[in-house]
Amino acid sequence: MTTIIPFDEGEKNLDWLALCRAIDAGHQRPKAEIADVFLYRGKDTLLNRSAWIDGLGLAVKAATVFPGNPGKGKPMVGGAVNLFDDTDGSLTAVVDFHLVTKWKTAGDSLCAALKLARPDSKHILIVGAGTVGTALHAAYSAGFPDAKFTVWNRTPEKARAFAETHGIDWAEDLETAVPAADIITSATMSTDPILQGAWFQPGQHIDLIGAYRPDMREADDTALKRATVFVDSHDTTLDHIGELKIPLANGTITKADIQADYYTPDAMRRTSDDQITLFKNGGGAHLDLMCARYILDAWHAASRSPL
Length: 307
Description:
Blueprint: E1 3-5, H1 7-11, H2 16-26, E2 33-41, E3 44-53, E4 57-65, E5 77-84, E6 91-96, H3 97-116, E7 123-127, H4 131-143, E8 148-152, H5 156-166, E9 169-170, H6 174-177, E10 183-186, E11 205-208, H7 221-226, E12 228-231, H8 234-237, H9 242-249, E13 258-260, E14 277-280, H10 285-304
Parallel strand pairs: 1-6, 7-8, 7-10, 8-9, 10-11, 11-14, 12-13, 12-14
Antiparallel strand pairs: 2-3, 3-4, 4-5, 5-6
């Protein structure tokens, strides 16, 4: 019997730190096989992201992007995540697309920060006051419960509204806000870098999420040269996302400068208190599989719990 997991009901069972443990466990299994397929009709897009991890199962995350929908009062992005059994290939679950994307994206960043940021980090700057910023606030609050948050957004009115909603501070000037933070987590749609490496301070952790296309970057060349660079997966970031693809192509950095990914856990750590660590969250399909499997396991555990 196939389990259907909608957003609200599924989210009630989830915990950010438990998700991080599931991501770590997933990377102890054989390396994932992944593939992406894109189909286009004018400005409309169908994206299928597939992953197979031996012993964990298979996932196909199908996403539709119809830019004209908001003008019709409909969501621009739709989709679902299909989970298949590893032993017989049967359809195990259909999980809400937005639930998996929210928890995978913010959980990926938190999992890295728990390894790379200083444990005593007290001030977290969220760059970008959108939907992902809200998830990042929730995730980082779980991982760094004593931290103070500040938000910056290119449009100050949005930063102010975000701050009021979440009970945090907001910054008007990014150049001033970055040096004051211990952790900077950035989720913007920028193609021109907005984070300047010259602003970074010893001991900071930089978390880059927003860039996902080959032409997108959030941090400049100086940032990559000053920091020790980590990724969630070499296979899904280096040759696909502008954040690293562009500086690799122009010789600013080399592939040897990428310190580690989740499949090399012993190297996925900071080595000194004054080291600047920089993590590129690429969010590949294998992470969708790990997250969706965690959501399904949490769903089953909740259904077995006594009332």
